[in-house]
Amino acid sequence: MTAGPQIFTVSASSQVDADHRGQVIVSGSYGGEYNAFHAGKWGLRGVVLNDAGVGKDNAGIRGLAYLEEIGLAAATADVNTCHIADGEHMLAHGIISHVNRFAAALGCKIGDTIRATAERMRHAPVAAG
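Above: the chain sequence. Below: its structure as tokens.
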């Protein structure tokens, strides 16, 4: 018997599927809109992506606003604290660089560990996707 929503790690958000519905995902994908779409379409409680150094025109965090539009708590990991494309390493070592308003409402903030953020996201409602 599971103790409520779980935290899963994937190397890329394209690996999220129907089996993850209602869970929290830590994905090694960068936080762009395309990767946010892959994570956001499955009815998750929360997702953490990698900021990939943020990049030109905020490309590495642009997905946070997209996920906010569908009501999904989302955050990005500072690429300087963990490996990109490695959800396990992000969960173990990453530090939050950006959060959307749904993640902030759960108490997630810049400077938190990825693990603490993912734990808070377990209490979020399931986003419609």
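The first strand starts at residue 7 and ends at 10.
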